[in-house]
Amino acid sequence: MARTQIEAAREGTVTDAMERVAERENRDPEFVRAQVAEGQAVIPANANHDALDPMIIGREFATKVNANIGNSEETSDRETELEKHHTAVHYGADTVMDLGTGANLDAIRETHVEHSPVPIGTVPLYEAVKRAGSPEDVTKGLLLEVIEKQARQGVDYMTIHAGILAEHLPLTDGRKTGIVSRGGSIMASWMEAHGEQNPLFQVYDELCGIFAKYDVTFSLGDSLRPGCLADACDEAQYAELDTLGELTRRAWEHDVQVMVEGPGHVPMHRVAENVERQQAVCDGAPFYVLGPLVTDVAPGYDHITSAIGAAMAAQAGAAMLCYVTPKEHLGLPEEEDVRDGLAAYRIAAHAGDVANDRPGARDWDDALSEARYAFDWREQFRLALDPDRAREFHDQTLPGDNYKEARFCSMCGAEFCSMRIDQEARRDGEMETLDDDRDGGTDLESSPAAEVNRPPVGTHESGDLPSVDDENDYPVERADDD
């Protein structure tokens, strides 16, 4: 019996996960199988993640969005992490990465996996450093131990910083911001202290064995991603990318699924170049990008600077976008930051899908536009990416129920509403009447669009995620998390 999705796909088997993905994407199951078999798409689905509703990441499918959450030593507790998870799922995160470095890591992680309908990702290197006490004290044995434990717990994909090599480090000397990846800086520190090659690179074949056993997907980390525009597309970044291409092919030899992580900070005119280069070097493995941020001057607004680059990356072929919140570079995001970051990135992902003419992607836009022209406020709210926010903004100035029937909003008022003026001119014969029959308008129920390109944004019920008040929902704390 096949152990991994890619192994089954290569054997010609359409798994239950592939059937579910085909349903969610409105695609043929055989097409899904072929994309997974060729490594062009991944279905992160750990065999021990029973609550998972399978999804797919690949450039031929709807663009996905990941939300990072996680506690730290300085702030955040278990209740806050559960609320972030609720918020992320509710506002449309397709996957959630737990990047916690604080207390109770095992308890929080196991609770997330036990109840999460979306794939859970981690960076196991963080836990290894926490247990060792310092980057220099991490051992290869500890790395393997932590990674296998997290795989056994049901983590669906892991960022593995195996691509940064000792020979790459001198290439960063002329940079403006050095190595900005946490995992990359840890590995660089370890190599400098030990005078050895990257330990994750050294044990990579053993990692492939663990990943194959549990069907964990590699998310190959971009340890040398640029941390500012000045460092984008430099020799260090592209040297690591070449190594990531080699690691991709090695994982495929072990029947392990792979996606590759990307930058970072990149000026607009070089975003497409980054995507195209990764696709060529990594033989079409899905590209998972952070941003990219297209300018460095907007702390507090980096969900916007990065969503611009994310939309361009999606259009160029990136398969999944890692959201950035307004707190980027400034602090640990809270619940409202998660909401704002996901809104920006769902917009970017959808815009990319519309630009790439994904089946039915624009139907959602058309349906909302029809409701807007008809002054159907309730339908506008229902179709909005964030219905609560749309209703809230409208009702701040026109709160009464009677204004839900009004043919204007407070921006232009009744006298200067352009759509009202347009409609009256057409009705009076000054212009041709628009064709408003259209069989009742756009029918989203019969649209060929994937689930993520149809409202509501949150396609999963988050009510099954436990409340922190119910202590029975938490696994027993472990001493190694102290």
TrEMBL record:
GO biological process, one term: thiamine biosynthetic process
Parts forming coiled coils: none
Cofactor annotation: [4Fe-4S] cluster
Key words, A-Z: 4Fe-4S, Iron, Iron-sulfur, Lyase, Metal-binding, S-adenosyl-L-methionine, Thiamine biosynthesis, Zinc
Binding site for Zn(2+): 265, 329
Enzyme Commission number, as recorded: 4.1.99.17
Metabolic or biological pathway, per its Swiss-Prot or TrEMBL entry: Cofactor biosynthesis; thiamine diphosphate biosynthesis
Top EC class for this record: lyase
Positions of [4Fe-4S] cluster binding: 409, 412, 417
Region annotation Disordered: where it falls in the sequence: 428-482
Catalyzed chemical reaction(s): 5-amino-1-(5-phospho-beta-D-ribosyl)imidazole + S-adenosyl-L-methionine = 4-amino-2-methyl-5-(phosphooxymethyl)pyrimidine + CO + 5'-deoxyadenosine + formate + L-methionine + 3 H(+)
Binding positions for substrate per the UniProt entry: 68, 97, 126, 161, 181-183, 222-225, 261, 288
Source taxon at top rank: Archaea
The keyword 4Fe-4S is annotated on this UniProt entry: yes
Cited function: Catalyzes the synthesis of the hydroxymethylpyrimidine phosphate (HMP-P) moiety of thiamine from aminoimidazole ribotide (AIR) in a radical S-adenosyl-L-methionine (SAM)-dependent reaction.
Protein family according to the UniProt entry: Belongs to the ThiC family.
Protein's name according to its UniProt entry: Phosphomethylpyrimidine synthase
Species per Swiss-Prot/TrEMBL record: Haloterrigena alkaliphila
Gene: thiC
